[in-house]
């Protein structure tokens, strides 16, 4: 092996460096636990694992998912082939046996590779990509002519359950499985998804469901994964004899949120801070991250159906990852959205949203 400079290895990656001047490099395939001990053996320069076919090789000139190096000249490839001897020890995980084999290879170290042929050098040209930003808006799933899906999990059976409904809410199909990829491919195979955005959404949700099963997390469609709630301990009412209570005081469950009437503009003007509110909003701007600005919308229930009328009162909604989003996701919280928000009223007409229902596709302003 030739001498190395301080910049070796030239490409960052998941590997362990031993003695950079040693003659042996070890690929542990997928045995991550072997990397550290192998790199520490005398005679080993570097130990690493196998990842995606083209991961890493792309950084030195190969474009795309294809292990081709247009920046390396044929004579350099030929020199590499003469310099490197590949030995297949697949299946061997005994560290002592591997140490003995490494020692035997290190003992016949040929030293720095010498050649009379000057290598042809080419300047590696970095790959150029056009920058695009994340974001955009998913087409409303109600427009998918094939219908929509409800995803849940069965933790006991370790299964993902997909139920398919037609646009008129008629139950149509059910699928059970354990792998997100195979289940999504099954939906595509049967022609049940017609929108790319819908397919992307289903892929994300199925991956979440699979992760929840693997790590024992709670899965709810359209919500972040979170730990499962432990079952509440059974409690009994304390027995009383006369005016005395027997036994210790039992823990009290947190109070449930009481029903809140939809707020009118007049009520909004007199509501005290930290009061529960239920109101409608038409989003006009996004003044800050996780804040929706817009106009207060007043529902009119005097006719045969509800009518939403915009007002001139500005209001802002602050939401977080803990806010429950219904009939849509974070990507639907955009200018033009019509929302129903339940939360705590704060100063300066700010509401801290606890539940946000996206009504953009089912309601209009008049």
TL;DR of this structure?
The protein is of the alpha+beta class and 366 residues long. Helices cover 17% and strands 27% of the residues.
Write structural notes for this entry.
The protein has 366 residues and is α+β, with helices and mostly antiparallel strands. It folds into three domains: 93 residues, no CATH class; 84 residues; 94 residues, Nucleic acid-binding proteins (OB fold (Dihydrolipoamide Acetyltransferase, E2P), Beta Barrel). The protein is 17% helix and 27% strand. The strands form five sheets. It has a five-stranded mixed β-barrel with strand order 11-12-13-16-15. Strands 1-3-2 form a three-stranded mixed sheet. A three-stranded antiparallel sheet has the order 4-5-6. A hairpin with a 5-residue loop joins strand 5 and strand 6. Helix 4 runs antiparallel to helix 5. The longest helix has 20 residues. The termini are far apart.
